Amino acid sequence: MKPQNEERTGLLYGIGAYGMWGLVPLFWPLLKPSGAVEILAHRMVWSLVVVGITLLALKRWGWIRDLLRRPRKLGLIAVAAAVITVNWGVYIWAVNAGQVVEASLGYFINPLVTIAMGVLLLGERLRPVQWAAVGIGFAAVLVLAIGYGRLPWISLTLAFSFATYGLVKKKVNIGGLESLAAETAIQFLPALAFLVWLTADGSATFGLHGTGHAALLVATGVVTAVPLVCFGAAAIRVPLSTLGLLQYLAPVFQFLLGVVYFREAMPPERWAGFALVWLALTCLTWDALRTARRTKAKALRLAAQAEAAGASADGPGAVAGPGAVAGAAVASTTGAVTRPEPQAETTG
Question: CA torsion 164→166→169→174, rounded to 10°?
Answer without folding.
Answer: 170
